[in-house]
Amino acid sequence: MVNQVNAEQAPRPVVTAKMPRPRPRRDVAKRLFLLFAALSGFLWVTLGALAGHGLFNAGQHADFFDKAHRYQIVHTLALLSLVSLPPSWPLLLCRTAGFLWILGLFAFCGSLYWMAFAGTPDLRLVVPVGGIAFLLGWAILFFAACWGERHGR
Predict the structure, then answer these.
(1) Which of 139-143's residues contact partners 24+ apart within 8 Å by CB, and which partners?
(2) What single-letter DSSP state applies at residue 107?
(3) b or e along 33-42 (b: 16 or more beta carbons within 10 Å of the residue's beta carbon)?
(4) In this predicted structure, what is the pLDDT of residue 26?
(5) CA-based end-to-end distance of the chain
(6) Model's pTM, two decimal places?
(7) pLDDT, averaged in runs of 10, over the chain (153 residues)
């Protein structure tokens, strides 16, 4: 009987519901940059292989292709580098730089590729838009690097 009384008087353990673990916050822009860099890198290798098999003879079309090809790999690698920047850097500036580079890849490289493959200068006015987007992206990344961790997120 003593054991029964002590068992009844003993404090019952408090059952608490386990709180779900907080999911790591995913940066959708970083994933987009990584996906786009992977696709752009794949296209860069594919287009380079096509050109390497004598797709273009020397001339203006080959110049368009070479310029687009060079700028594509540089900005593909730049997009890839944005994914690895510290999370304490200014997020808005880094995202803006990345989206400007994507715009530049479409406008600058895309229009040069179009002019190289189609043989028409239809999109020649779009090329400077892409070039300006590239330049703005680099300038914004410069400011993000200057501010660094002081003005992060």
Answers:
(1) 140/93, 140/96, 140/97, 140/100, 141/78, 141/93, 141/94, 141/97, 143/90, 143/93
(2) I
(3) bbebbeebbe
(4) 60
(5) 65
(6) 0.77
(7) 58 66 69 94 92 73 91 95 87 94 97 89 91 97 85 51
64-69 — which CB contacts under 8 Å span 24+ positions? 64/112, 64/113, 64/115, 64/116, 65/112, 65/113, 65/116, 65/117, 67/112, 68/108, 68/109, 68/110, 68/112, 68/113, 68/116, 69/44, 69/109
Q: How open is the CA angle 104-117-76, to the nearest 5 degrees?
A: 30
Q: Is the dihedral of CA 143, 112, 72, 30 positive or negative?
A: positive
Q: What is the structure's pLDDT at 88?
A: 82
Structure tokens that stand for 33 in this block: 């940059």
